[in-house]
Specification:
Alpha-Beta Plaits, 3 helices, 31% strand, alpha+beta
Length: 96
């Protein structure tokens, strides 16, 4: 079964409130076995017109595991905490 990645580009609009989201999302990641590959490091655009903001890449053992994380009670709580604190763009990508 191939691995899966959740890739997110985040524009934080309220850093104080966003910290609550980070706390809850960390709990969700731990509970669902996410491997944190990237979490807010420096970004260098190599091609195209792209401003990804804060970038996050999470690795999961499967697409089903990634979906379980996203729809979990833990991450649902994190998403609620994030409302009004950030603009989130997120995709689920099947790996190899």
């Amino acid at each position: 079964m191939p691995s899966a990645y959740i890739i997110a580009s985040v524009t934080v609009t309220d850093p104080v409130q966003y910290e609550e989201y980070r706390q809850w999302s960390s709990i969700a990641m731990q509970a669902h076995g996410a491997e944190v590959c990237v979490r807010g490091g420096a970004v260098e655009v190599l091609e195209g017109d792209w401003n990804p903001g804060r970038t996050v890449v999470l690795k999961f053992s499967s697409v089903d595991a990634a979906r379980s994380f996203y729809h979990s009670p833990e991450y649902t709580k994190a998403r609620a905490a994030r409302e009004g604190a950030a603009v989130m763009r997120m995709v689920l990508v099947e790996g190899v």
